[in-house]
TrEMBL record:
<keyword id="KW-0233">DNA recombination</keyword>
<dbReference type="GO" id="GO:0004803">
    <property type="term" value="F:transposase activity"/>
</dbReference>
<dbReference type="Pfam" id="PF00665">
    <property type="entry name" value="rve"/>
</dbReference>
<dbReference type="Pfam" id="PF13936">
    <property type="entry name" value="HTH_38"/>
</dbReference>
<dbReference type="InterPro" id="IPR053392">
    <property type="entry name" value="Transposase_IS30-like"/>
</dbReference>
<dbReference type="InterPro" id="IPR001598">
    <property type="entry name" value="Transposase_IS30_CS"/>
</dbReference>
<dbReference type="GO" id="GO:0006313">
    <property type="term" value="P:DNA transposition"/>
</dbReference>
<protein>
    <submittedName>
        <fullName>IS30 family transposase</fullName>
    </submittedName>
</protein>
<dbReference type="InterPro" id="IPR036397">
    <property type="entry name" value="RNaseH_sf"/>
</dbReference>
<dbReference type="InterPro" id="IPR051917">
    <property type="entry name" value="Transposase-Integrase"/>
</dbReference>
<dbReference type="InterPro" id="IPR025246">
    <property type="entry name" value="IS30-like_HTH"/>
</dbReference>
<comment type="similarity">
    <text>Belongs to the transposase IS30 family.</text>
</comment>
<keyword id="KW-0815">Transposition</keyword>
<keyword id="KW-0238">DNA-binding</keyword>
<dbReference type="GO" id="GO:0003677">
    <property type="term" value="F:DNA binding"/>
</dbReference>
<feature type="domain" description="Integrase catalytic">
    <location>
        <begin position="224"/>
        <end position="383"/>
    </location>
</feature>
<dbReference type="GO" id="GO:0005829">
    <property type="term" value="C:cytosol"/>
</dbReference>
Amino acid sequence: MARQRFMELLAQGVPLRLAAIEVGVSRSAAQIWKNGTTVRRKDGTVKVVLPLEPLAVRPISPRFLSEEERVRIADMASRGDGPTVIGQALGRAASTISRELRRNLHTTGQYRPFHAQVLAAQRRRRPKQPKVAGNPVLRAFVVDRLAEKWSPQQISRALRAAHPDEPAMRLATESIYLALYRPSNGLVSKPSPLRTGRDHRRAHNRQIRAGRRFAQPMLSVHDRGFEPTDRSVAGHWEGDLIVGPNHRSGIGTLVERQTRYTKLLHLPTQDSITVHAALVRTLGQLPAGLRRTLTWDQGTEMARHLEVAADTGIRVYFCDAASPWQRGTNENTNGLLRQYFPKSTDLSVHTPADLARVELELNRRPRMILGDRTPADLFNALLTSQNHPPLR
């Protein structure tokens, strides 16, 4: 493999000395690999060591200057032509020619095309082992957090906070995604630990639901009294259902807008009677100061919204039709919950204990939007300030 790599480097224009260092052999050994040699044994016989088969030069993108173009640049520059004239002749931008003449000069101050080609090849990106694959401690940290269903962004920020002075223990969010999208990295096995369940990138193609599902008299989200971006006051909630196949099973979701604290509702059925009872039971556990408003989708499961308001003291508002972004906090949370409750699966199999476990795990995750604090810590601080015991 070292010989193969050595010849690949030579084909890319890397000097023999640097290629030898890269693969870990002496310069004399590299000379033999490239040119071959003749060895005379003590018994008088001669052994011929053939040179390694040269590799074809790896094709590069046409956006990079070729060796032929560099020869023309040298010829025209020697005649006194400037970057604009040379660029027009080659079909290149004048800035490209100017940068080439500036970056790839020989130590003598002259522009030599073959030397410039070698310099450009040396700067070209080389394949290298991903950091997460070469650092067992770093890899273990990432794998453990993925097992706890942390997102790549949360993992990246946690690494930065835990190892502020150790660059070797840093990973960009994109690096974690790339490691997950490349099976050769051996980071995790299938199924993908990402919340989407995907092992590759996919273009978004979301269709907006049309029409109204709830025609009862209701309060509009536009009458709520505060802007969607205003989270200065706690106690404002957003809610919805995540449903299984053919809407035959479902789980209710509630999210407090300021802290992103999540509550899950166990729903044997999705009718308005069951949803009303679950909301009254869950919201009734909270102090009045944390039961201000509830914003919901226009689903028929909220047909008893007036009873919910009367029984809990909370004001219920409804989004416009086909406007889920008007309760964006809840929509985002529902996306996180799909990691636990995948689409097209029967949600009725999950017990109240199952929902409590997921709720606890989700609320204990640090959030970048919260300054890497957890929803549980912030919400329990609110409860303490109102002389209310912490939840779970």
